Amino acid sequence: MKAIAHTQACPITADNALIELTIDKPQPAAHDLLVRVHGISLNPVDVKVRENMAPEGAHRILGYDAAGIVEAVGSEVTHFKPGDEVFYAGEFMRPGSNAEYQLVDERLTGRKPSSLGFADAAAVPLTAITAWEILFDAFKLNEGDGMGEALLVIGGAGGVGSILIQLAKKLTNLTVIATASRPDTIEWVKKMGADHVVNHRNPLNEELKALEIQPRYVAALTGTDQHWDAIIELIKPRGHIAMTDDPQDLNINAIKLKALTLTWEFMFARSIFQTEDMDVQHTLLNRVSELLDNNSLITTANHHGGEMNVKNLLAAHEFQESGRAIGKSVLDGFK
């Protein structure tokens, strides 16, 4: 089968930053599905791994979102059968979705929304799992909770921010404030359903004072180092911060006075450590699929890069790194 991989930690401008390979088709075991990949999407983790993590072997196949058709199943599979259309975010430690075929654990896989094509469906899983875990695992909200409280989403036009805004508006009663700074990103977060938009190029504590809203919840999806002091000032006492980026120098003692809770969200934790509750990702992806099919949510795909090949995947990585990406960038599978 064909696949695209990286062979060294390198910038996207390096020679052979991504290369095409021909390798054997994998065979499913136990809970595995063998999926023919028909659509993928890019995430910041693709860029971070390519730039910073040399493969342990000769190469590493990237890709952490996909949609496709089940071709074969392992001996312990109960959720799916050959011919089923699925979508998923895969596992951090296994070969990724930039390939014709991929193995994925059924417990991390959901039914593909029937209303979406494969590429549009592939835009959703990783970010939806992350957003769901922020709302319902980290913040410990139940559906319908949040009346009289507010959520600040820092980086509202990114992949996670785009679906987090939607989930919070559809499944909770939180007031949602999103950050955006350009006319196109402001328009996008409003389309996602944000009640208010503030500019993250300004001090966020001042932006929130102007709104006269003090959020109890903050999703710090980008620029946490830059906004840390402002977050501590603007959040309610006994509030909760969930972050997904990689801040280098946080003054953790600053959260003590307000008795704040800080959670680091990483949606691959369940699969890396094979937790007993891995199947919750299967359940939540099926719920997200239903919400997409009944038009409660919309896909966050916003840039289509064509079919899977080295040239188009390189361009997608470059666009992901450019700072201009809104929502998710997607590609079709190999032709």
Automatic annotation (TrEMBL):
Keyword list, A-Z: Acetylation, Cytoplasm, Metal-binding, NADP, Oxidoreductase, RNA-binding, Zinc
Coiled-coil segments: none
Single annotated GO MF: oxidoreductase activity
Occurrences of domain Enoyl reductase (ER) (ranges): 14-331
Alphabetical list of InterPro entries matching this protein: ADH-like_C, ADH-like_N, ADH_Zn_typ-1, ER, GroES-like_sf, NAD(P)-bd_dom_sf, Quin_OxRdtase/zeta-crystal_CS, Zinc-ADH_QOR/CCCR
Subcellular location: Cytoplasm
Pfam families in the cross-refs: ADH_N (PF08240), ADH_zinc_N (PF00107)
Recorded GO CC terms: cytoplasm
Iron as UniProt keyword: no
UniProt key word Iron: no
Subunit description: Homotetramer.
Family in the record: Belongs to the zinc-containing alcohol dehydrogenase family. Quinone oxidoreductase subfamily.
Protein name as it appears in the record: Zinc-type alcohol dehydrogenase-like protein
